[in-house]
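Allow me, if you will, to draw on your knowledge of protein folds for a short while. The matter concerns a single protein, recorded as an amino acid sequence and a row of backbone structure tokens. Could you please explain, in whatever detail you think fit, how the structure tokens follow from the sequence? I remain grateful for any guidance, and I place the record below:

…
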Amino acid sequence: MMPIVLTRIDDRLIHGQVMTAWVKFTQANRIMIIDEGVAKDPFMVKVLKMAAPPGIKVDIYDVEQAVEVLKENDSTNEKIIILVKHPVVIETLLEKGIEIKKLNVGGMGAAPGRKALYKNISISKEEREIFQRILDKGTDIFIQIVPDEKEVDIKKFI
């Protein structure tokens, strides 16, 4: 399986200094966005590729494509950041055999049906249940907006 250095939920995906900080911290050289809607939107694909830090390869896949690519035994020196908007994508990846030991929650903004969980993180009842199932599968979940902040274990809030 390809080397994953960070798996992150952030509903803004690639944006400004936050992603630049994570790329630098993890020494990633590839960002893999997994999102059904974005993968089908050529304009958003172009925007996100332009938003990436210089020299970083960006690929955008739907879940099935991502699973196929991640399961490849890739012996390159790639260090991959996986970015998704929603926890259900992580749950699906786990169900399809992708190993995720740690999950970073960095941005889930307020929306109808969501309640504040911690700082800028808001989740719905369904998302809370998904996070619990992800925890039950053995994945550690932590909230951390940028690398120089302390990790906050999501178990305190679920």
Observations:
- Strands lie at 4-10, 30-34, 57-61, 80-84, 102-107, 115-118, 121-123, 140-143, 152-153.
- The radius of gyration is 15 Å.
- The chain has a mean pLDDT of 94.
- The longest helix spans residues 125-136.
